[in-house]
Design brief:
By secondary structure, the chain is mainly β. It is 15% helix and 38% strand. It is built from 1 helix and 10 strands. The strands form 2 sheets. A 5-stranded mixed β-sheet has the order 1-8-5-2-3, with no helix packed on it. β2 and β3 form a beta hairpin. The termini are far apart.
């Protein structure tokens, strides 16, 4: 019985480690040093609204300009969602907005970071910084 518990624990640990490394690929360009949160006193020059419904975003690709502060807003119209911008530390909560500045051109993958049902894994889009 103890061998089975040890085996199950090791298998679980291996799966957790593998899942944590899953966000390491998929985008060119972009790393956390290239994106900064903008001070609340700075007015964004543009706004990008990401609309999330059940298991999809309204667009496959969103574009922002490098070097300009942009307000990124998540609007959930079906279910509860969140956005994670991969290769950064930035997330957007359900029906929230954050102002960020992307310093270098590149492509970032965005995903829904709140389990929202059967199609959750398909909730992916690109954020293209030009």
């Amino acid at each position: 019985m103890k061998k089975w518990i040890v085996f199950a624990s090791i298998l679980t640990l291996a799966l957790v480690i593998a899942a944590c490394g899953a966000n390491s690929g998929g985008s060119n360009g972009g790393n956390s040093g290239d994106v900064v949160a903008v001070d609340a006193a700075v007015k964004p020059t543009s706004e990008v609204v990401v609309t999330a419904t059940d298991w999809k975003f309204d667009q496959q690709e969103y574009q922002v300009k490098a070097g300009e502060p942009v307000a990124l807003t998540l609007k959930s119209v079906g279910g509860v969602h969140g956005v994670q911008i991969l290769k950064t530390k930035h997330t957007i909560g359900n029906n929230e907005s954050v102002t960020l500045q992307f310093d270098k051109p590149g492509t970032y993958d965005i995903i829904c970071n709140l389990p929202c049902g059967g199609g959750h894994a398909k909730m992916k889009a690109k954020l293209v910084v030009t």
